[in-house]
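Posting this for the archive.
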Amino acid sequence: MPSVPEEYYFDPTPFVPNSPFPVLIYRSALPTNPTAQMTRECLEANQWIQGGVFKTYRAHHFHSVTHECYAVFRGSSKVLLGRGPLDSLEGGAEVDLRVGDAIVLPVSEPRLPSLRHQSNAEMQAGVAHCSLSSEGDYEYVGLYPKGSPHWDNNFCKAGGEETQEKASIARSVPIPEEDPVFGAGGPLVDIWRRAIAK
């Protein structure tokens, strides 16, 4: 049975916009001994659609056009969140993902801009992430809210103008209607709405 998700918050850096929403990690979110097909079926039932099956990806990057969910069905990985390759070594977080875990990586959301300080809102897009190391032939299904455009990859090395551009795009991305693990009424929607109301 999946647990209530862990929450990880990240401030913007000079090269990574990050997001006012927390990254969510659901432990033991998948059935025992999951396969790629089983993982896809479980989460697609909650209106998150498979974009591909992926292995270790070591390049620091973030997305500005869609939220993303990784659901791990093989192996394990140490993942760095919230910090790019040009940032100082302070900040960010290293998390361990293993078989059965799911992680949701957010972008911004535009509907309540008056509830956030404008200078912060201008610098919020997607949360940076990359694999630092992996074991056991690490593999996961990548899923995206139904109706989302194809993801973009931004490699956390752009100057301020391009980063602002990506943040503007990210502010048009809505909160998903369903939680990828729990479905309708799951914790994601409430957690993210509370985050932008702070």
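The chain has four helices and seven strands. Residues 110-123 have pLDDT under 50 and may be disordered.
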